[in-house]
UniProtKB/TrEMBL annotation:
Gene3D superfamilies: 3.30.70.270
One Gene Ontology term from the biological process aspect of the record: DNA repair
Keywords recorded for this protein, A-Z: Mutator protein
Protein name, as recorded: UmuC domain-containing protein
Signal peptide residue numbers: none
Family matches, as SUPFAM superfamilies: DNA/RNA polymerases
Family annotation (Pfam families): IMS (PF00817)
Residues annotated as domain UmuC: 1-67
Family, per entry: Belongs to the DNA polymerase type-Y family.
Source organism per UniProt: Lactococcus cremoris subsp. cremoris GE214
UniProt KW Oxidoreductase keyword: no
């Protein structure tokens, strides 16, 4: 499910699809990171654009991860979780 946040930001809810993409990985946060990496690579290869990815247990945590950490990390990904 995709939710547009602004002209250049969207939320992608992959909660129900995590095991579909990487069934061999049991840690959901590692699954999220792998999906984010694949999305970044695909967008770079197809469009030539670098994208930042914030991940979290809900949209607020994902937004905070992107704004406060992903934009400053070399891999342009960050995760904030409840645990």
């Amino acid at each position: 499910e995709i939710h547009s946040y602004s002209i250049d930001e969207s939320f992608l809810d992959i909660t129900e699809s995590l095991n579909f993409f990487y069934p061999g990985i049991k840690n959901r946060y590692e699954q999220m990171n792998r999906i984010a990496l694949d999305l970044q690579r695909e967008i770079l290869n197809k469009l030539g654009l670098y994208v930042t990815v914030g991940m979290g247990d809900n949209p607020l945590l994902a937004k905070l991860a992107m704004d406060n950490y992903a934009k400053h990390n070399d891999n342009m990904r960050a995760l904030i979780r409840y645990e």
